[in-house]
Design goal:
Shape: globular
Helix content: 25-40%
Strand order of the largest sheet: 3-4-2-1-5-6
Largest sheet: 6 strands, parallel
Number of strands: 6
Radius of gyration: 19 Å
Distance between the termini: 33 Å
């Protein structure tokens, strides 16, 4: 599917790949259990969402309520994300996309932007071996321009290290914006048409989707946003066209896999018709 697409991200050399690590674990270890001993609800496999999109929101408010700097909320979010990954594996969710840094987040203070750039880089570096051991494949969706080179290096190293894993896929959306992704895809498709390699009259939704950041990413089934906000904030709009939306009041630093499982239960109860009639 990718053969006609010029990827915006350069791939690592063989030497860089060798330096990144030993490759996927031969036998993935099970995820760490929840400290409370909680286990996932019994949901028929056909009703478990395949792809969950997660907006990690509320870090700043969580910190402010406790008289802490905003960065404390982001720091707590690292363990929360890992707990959510464990919960996805236990639940049978095969794809999790996490909104780590949006194209709009550049509007924040220079101090917070610098912290988030370094924090995202260091989280990937600290956690990639752990995710590799659990059989998690790490992907990156987002734009290269403005993103720190050191962040790109760590994201691509994690991609290479975990490329052979199949237990689940975690897509880190860093410097990502849904409208930007669609605009970039439209530009790439327009270049192909202008060069005569594509007939504009034969462009379909399926054709267009091949030019998105991750063409093989499945459509989002469950769009989950903690923090009490009731909007999608430019996150995976193309992929979420038929997603079930679940909004929770829990701030992300207080979120854990039990909140994910609760959202999966809500998803399983809904009647998904995709425009048809049952």
């Amino acid at each position: 599917m990718r053969c006609v697409i010029q990827r915006r991200r350069t791939r690592r050399t063989g030497a860089e790949t060798a330096a990144a690590g030993p490759g996927p674990a031969a036998a993935p270890r099970p995820p760490d259990p929840h400290p409370s001993g909680a286990t996932p609800p019994d949901i028929p496999a056909a009703l478990v969402p395949r792809h969950v999109a997660l907006v990690m929101d509320g870090n700043g408010r969580w910190a402010r309520e406790r008289g802490l700097p905003r960065t404390a909320g982001h720091e707590r979010g690292e363990a929360v994300l890992m707990d959510t990954v464990c919960g996805c594996i236990e639940m049978g969710v095969s794809h999790l996309s996490a909104y780590a840094f949006s194209t709009e987040n550049w509007k924040r203070s220079p101090e917070e932007v610098r912290f988030l750039m370094g924090f995202n880089r260091d989280v990937i570096r600290r956690r990639r071996d752990e995710m590799n051991e659990m059989g998690v494949r790490v992907r990156w969706a987002g734009r290269r321009p403005r993103l720190w080179k050191s962040v790109i290096t760590e994201l691509e190293a994690a991609e290479e290290l975990t490329a052979g894993n199949s237990v689940m896929t975690l897509t880190m959306c860093v410097n990502y914006g849904g409208r930007a992704e669609i605009a970039d895809a439209a530009q790439a498709l327009a270049r192909e048409a202008a060069a005569g390699r594509i007939d504009p009259e034969k462009i379909t939704e399926k054709t267009f989707a091949r030019y998105l950041d991750e063409p093989d990413m499945p459509d989002v089934d469950l769009f989950l946003r903690p923090s009490g906000e009731l909007r999608t904030s430019n996150f995976l709009p193309w992929q979420s066209a038929y997603a079930e939306l679940v909004f929770q009041d829990t701030l992300f630093p207080d979120f854990d896999r039990r909140d994910l499982w609760s959202a999966c239960l809500e998803y399983a109860r809904r009647d998904r018709r995709f425009g048809g009639v049952k």
